[in-house]
Design goal:
heterodimer, A: 215 residues, alpha/beta, Double Stranded RNA Binding Domain, five-stranded mixed sheet, three-stranded mixed sheet, B: 226 residues, Rossmann fold, 6 strands, elongated
């Protein structure tokens, strides 16, 4: 596309001397840097989650992830950072549920049948983060508000409660994506910590477990 | 007349002393120890240095934690240190910021959780050293400006700032499930930056001094025993 225009101007403009090449390279590098600045950056959410040391409840649970959860993505309108929360959250919750319950089997509906004691469904309601430039601190702070719902095998709600998880990571020069990613992973670990240790103490779940004589 | 070579070397030594004093900046350092129980390290006893990562705006810098670990893992009889990240993962979720025991009184309850006592025994960790605190710039002043032009660049002015590195290490004994003691290090220092064409930073490395002071005292505390 650019070549014909250049050919057209070659007749009028003297051949550039070789000393202009570094200047061109600089302009090119600047343009590339500008392009990189204007494109979106996917926040890295990589890493393994450790296995929790918890006692498994003697329950056969269905685990339900809705499509909104599987594909949850956060994008701020005025920021080029985007956070894909779905896949790492599924990895985390799969690991947590497999340790929390004697049996945890993926299901696609809230009424999977009588072979299950109940169905547990995590959802992400909101994802928020605070940048150091706004908070005035040295940290990126992330808050993820989950909702955990437990259904009986017929789809009736046994319990549903919000779980607010928090993570923070020190800001790194020229690497806001990495700091935000670390803060997000810490918030997810926080969620796993709360859920795995407080699930059976959640008021409605506790009453349900007592009624089943399962503690 | 004195020997010129001796005079010259004395002058070099004096200049070196002045420069090193200036470069070190002006600092005051205070390390205090409160012992609650006797301590001691046996073969096979490991320690882990953990930083308090609660959800406040203040937490020890990674560099400070790394410095303490480095100081304690060298020397004539280095400690058997467990890396923080490895230990926190190994004990997941019980040492996450929200669940980590805040006081030694919470240890018996923690060890009642299924699998926790067994994991701690298997890790060999005898002492947990909780490090808390931070380094802050407290005050500062002066002005310094730099300009650049076709013929060159240069700076002129003078700035200074005060830093306070205030850290505390709480040592918990996992055998006796109690606090063994607390060590604190408080280092204040003033850094200067005069500039006549070239800025000359004379930095008071308060964090580094606090780290070395705290690490040295932790080592003595654990080894001395009484």
């Amino acid at each position: 596309m650019l070549q014909p225009a250049r050919q057209g101007t070659d007749a009028l403009v003297p051949e550039p001397c070789t000393s202009n090449r570094p200047g061109r390279a600089l302009i090119l590098a600047f343009a590339v840097a500008l392009a990189a600045c204007s494109s979106n950056i996917s926040v890295p959410l990589k890493g393994e989650f450790p296995e929790p040391i918890i006692g498994a409840l003697p329950l056969s649970m269905g685990v339900l992830y809705q499509d909104e959860f599987r594909t949850f993505r956060h994008e701020e309108p005025d920021s080029r950072l985007k956070v894909d929360l779905g896949p790492p959250n599924i990895k985390l919750f799969d690991q947590i549920f497999s340790k929390m319950f004697e049996q945890a089997v993926p299901v696609t509906t809230q009424q999977p049948g009588p072979q299950f004691d109940a169905v547990v469904e995590p959802m992400i309601e909101t994802f928020e983060y605070l940048e150091p430039a706004i908070s005035g601190s040295e940290f990126y702070a992330v808050t993820i508000r989950y909702r955990i719902s437990v259904y009986d095998p017929n789809g009736g709600v046994i319990a549903s409660w919000p779980l607010v998880a928090y993570g923070k990571s020190r800001s790194r020069a020229m690497n806001s994506g990495q700091s935000l990613g670390e803060a997000t992973l810490l918030a997810m670990r926080d969620a796993a910590a709360i859920l795995s240790t407080e699930f059976k103490d959640q008021k409605q779940v506790k009453a349900w477990l007592l009624a089943r004589n399962t503690q | 007349m004195s020997d010129p070579a001796v005079y010259s070397s004395c002058r070099i030594a004096a200049v070196t002393l002045c420069v090193s004093t200036l470069v070190a900046g002006c600092m005051t350092s205070r390390v205090e120890e409160i012992r609650q129980t006797a301590t001691g390290i046996s073969a096979g006893d490991a320690i882990v240095i953990l930083t308090r990562r609660d959800h406040t705006e203040v937490e020890p810098e990674e560099s400070f934690h790394g410095c303490i670990e480095k100081q304690l893992s060298k020397g004539q009889k280095p400690f058997d240190l467990r890396p923080q990240a490895e230990f926190v993962d190994y004990m997941f979720p019980w040492f996450e910021p929200r669940l980590a025991p805040a006081t030694p009184d919470a240890l018996p309850e923690l060890l009642k959780q299924p699998g926790v006592a067994e994991k701690i025994t298997a890790s060999g960790v005898r002492y947990i050293v909780w490090v808390d605190g931070t380094t802050e710039v407290m005050d500062g002043g002066g002005s310094l400006s730099c300009t650049a032009g076709p013929t060159g660049a240069g700076c002129f002015g003078f700035t200074w700032w005060d830093k306070d590195s205030d850290y505390e290490a709480s040592i918990w004994d996992l055998h006796n499930l109690e606090s063994a003691g607390t060590i604190s290090a408080d280092v204040e220092g003033t850094s200067y930056m005069p500039a006549i064409v070239v800025p000359i930073p004379l930095i008071a490395r308060t964090q580094s001094v606090a780290c070395k002071g705290l690490a040295r005292q932790i080592e003595r505390f654990l080894v001395a025993g009484q």
